[in-house]
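Record type: monomer structure entry
Structure origin: computed from sequence
Chain ID: A
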Amino acid sequence: MSAKKLLIIGLVWPEPASSAAGTRMIQLVDLFLAKGYQITFASAASKSDFSYDFSNTSVIEQEIKLNNESFNSFLKALNPDIVLFDRFMIEEQYGWRVQQECPDALRILDTEDLHFLRQARQQSSKKQETLNLFSDTAKREIAAILRCDLSLIISEIEMKLLEEQFKIDASLLYYLPFLEQEITATTIQNWIPFTDRADFVFIGNFLHEPNWHTVQTLKTKVWPLLRKKLPEAKLNIYGAYPSQKVLQLENKAEKFFIKGRTLNAQETIAQHRVLLAPIQFGAGVKGKFIDAMQVGTPSVTTTVGAEAMKGNLSWNGIVEDDLSTFAEQASLLYQNEAEWKEAQKHGVQIINERYASTAFADDFMQKITKLLLNLPKHRQANFMGQILNHHTLQSTKYMSLWIEEKNK
């Protein structure tokens, strides 16, 4: 029996050293590779110096063009069993072509996190308005979910929102969080101890608006309070793609340092005693906290920051929304070794009980196999999706063909 073929269409070439989204994509690639899939990764984006190097794997890389019939020819020749869209915008751009050329291919959407939820919270936070989930982005993203055979959701909160608020059938959604290595006793023994660590850290890709906003919150509201309590401590800010406005926040006299990109997030976080992340809006699951738990660095964050990450378990540190209490608690955690070690234990429990890849990989692959065997029946049950596919094939198709003609 020949290996099944998976085509992944990427919004960008994954950069696991730059963002949690990049890490997530490589975890999915590894999962399918381990099950013997023949993978082609295609993207119309340009590569960067930080794009993942697939040359050590069996993954075939393919550059593609947007709004171009060459993609149809490529699809026909490849004839994949599964097509995975990296975020809803990619499904909008290429979904109709996949449907036209490979109608029997299983279509999976990896949402990363719900973009409409993140945007709604951003609007609400900035304009001090009530949360409006029913935006145009929501209509687009939910339409993409309905058009696909399965959507991967990274957060239980988002699963609940889609099922209860938007009445999406559970058969179209699949909860698949980050897939992490279990933390063993040996791992814990190799962690840098409390006394050998110093300073606070924040890390986050600056192309992501919630991270930029969090750094502003640290600079103006949290750090002035924390410095009074711990005048010797520094706050080191790391993250890929810092713009000029980010770099300008550095103030050596205030011990507020902008360090920019780090090549290894976990190694960097491991040097520090506490991770600070007073996140005010966002969605999904935050890679920075997973990295912190993996290296035994407790964190102080907000309800939105910890959302959907800990389930019913205790946080590996402190969850606090009031910023003056946030600074107070961060100072106590930084100085109290017993409390700090307790927080570490909570982090181990969260990773091992909620993110260990062994707990998810087999179930997910069984789900895929089952869908491949029963695809016509599965699609029949999703009549709303059939309607959207029918109309999208007409509207998006002709818009794209018009752009194609115009480009000629």
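Annotation 1: The chain is about 50% helix and 15% strand.
Annotation 2: The chain has a mean pLDDT of 94.
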